[in-house]
Write a structure and sequence with these properties.
The complex is a heterodimer of chains A (about 120) and B (about 290). Chain A is mainly alpha-helical. In chain A, about 60% of the residues lie in helices and about 10% in strands. Classes of the chains: A mainly alpha (about 120), B alpha/beta (about 290).
């Protein structure tokens, strides 16, 4: 798992952590039941306050992404398959919005875009 | 949960300076940075915690016990690093260590040897031959070699180069993997704390200005820069340490979100460093 913190970003550090861990879980980089580092060792590695890592983990637990088991450790929670799929669908939608905007900005028609999509889809088959 | 260090209404009066109503609490498992300009009262507070000077009022509890009534017991469990030298200059590092080791019930010779090796301490040299950095490392090695639960340090990094300071921070990080320990250290080199501190207490002119989590400070405070009209039209309320130049003003605000809602379109808002906060608070503001 890779987590990279920017000190100069507008986004609070705990939020950068939750976003990156959520992304890793949604994309399947972090798998169900995988062990996460303790809040203290994460704080040490990232050179940040343990209060920050605790806040990030508490929020991830609240939202159902991870489970903190006292005495055992922190694990990626069994993900609700439907919610996960929904998150992944949202990502596809976001990328499609990007493609549509890019197409419109250079004057591609809907049919031309659809044609491109068809070719790309069939490429891997 | 008992606090590892608790100070209530502490007072100390000197002829030209007094410490007024000092209140702060540190729970175990955390690092508290104690910041303030020179002469603010940081060293005095630490000397009072260690009972090196007599207080004029208030309470200091360490591990839940009064620091004077249970002095010996409490000091056995504290490791400290002070700014001034207090070693015999004419004996060797090893000899000085042997003298000090006797004071601690839980002295760990193995731990000391390991730190001495890691720090490159010249064991057979006389204390007076050591550089400032080496003296600090010696103090630190001692402080970490008797299973101390609370580490108290007064300006441990002043006069040290950034590399040594970074090494100290790594050591503190390692120490804090144990959630039963605590660290309280004063410094005016706030960049060390920007990353590692959990809590920050800011003292100025003998008074505590604020004591809160570092995240709270970094998320809420902001350095703002904008046109002078902003101050002229809205007054200087809420702005800390205002400074005007030919082209505008800059100041610190305690709630940058509130400020953003009001003036976000005509002013620039930036994340502050602890150094910014210290400077703006101690600067004498020039009001419009």
């Amino acid at each position: 798992m890779d987590i990279v913190i920017s000190n100069s970003s507008e986004k609070p550090i705990y939020e950068q952590i939750t976003t990156q861990i959520k992304d890793a879980i949604i994309k399947g980089v972090l798998k169900e039941a995988e062990i996460l580092p303790s809040i203290r060792s994460l704080a040490k590695e990232l050179k940040i306050s343990v209060i920050t890592t605790k806040r990030a983990y508490d929020e991830l637990e609240r939202e159902g992404f991870i489970s903190i088991v006292p005495g055992k450790g922190t694990f990626v929670a069994a993900q609700n398959k439907d919610l996960l799929r929904e998150s992944r669908i949202r990502i596809v939608e976001e990328k499609l919005i990007e493609a549509v905007e890019a197409a419109k900005s250079i004057g591609l028609s809907f049919d031309e875009l659809l044609e491109m999509l068809k070719l790309l889809f069939e490429e891997d088959d | 949960m008992t606090a590892i260090l608790e100070i209530k209404n502490l007072r100390k009066e000197y002829k030209d300076f007094s410490l007024k109503d000092i209140n702060l609490t540190l729970e175990k498992g955390f690092i508290m940075g104690f910041i303030g300009p020179n002469g603010a009262g940081k060293s005095t507070t630490i000397k009072l915690i260690l009972n090196l000077v007599n207080k004029d009022g208030g309470e200091i509890n360490i591990f839940g016990k009064d620091n004077i009534a249970f002095e010996k017991e409490v000091k056995n469990r504290i490791g400290f690093v002070l700014d001034e030298g207090y070693y015999y200059e004419e004996i060797t590092v090893r000899e000085m260590k042997s003298i000090i080791a006797h004071f601690y019930d839980r002295w760990d010779e193995g731990a000391f040897k390991k730190y001495a090796k890691d720090f490159g301490l010249p064991i057979e040299k006389k204390i007076r031959e050591l550089s400032k950095g080496m003296k600090m490392k010696f103090s630190l090695a001692i402080a970490l070699s008797h299973d101390a639960e609370l580490l108290i340090m007064d300006e441990p990094t002043s006069g040290l180069d950034p590399v040594v300071r970074s090494e100290l921070l790594d050591i503190l990080s390692d120490l804090m993997q144990d959630e039963n320990k605590g660290v309280f250290f004063s410094t005016h080199i706030t960049s060390d704390l920007d990353k590692i501190a959990d809590y920050i207490t800011f003292i100025n002119n003998g008074e505590i200005i604020f004591s809160t989590t570092k995240d709270d400070i970094m998320d809420n405070f902001g350095v703002v820069k904008g046109p002078k009209e902003l101050i002229r039209n809205n007054g200087s309320n809420g702005f800390i340490g205002i400074r005007e130049n030919q082209y505008g003003f800059e100041a610190l605000v305690q709630n940058k979100e509130e400020f953003r809602k009001l003036y976000g379109d005509i002013a620039v808002i930036e994340k502050p460093t602890l150094e910014d906060i210290m400077v703006y608070y101690t600067r004498r503001g020039i009001y419009a």
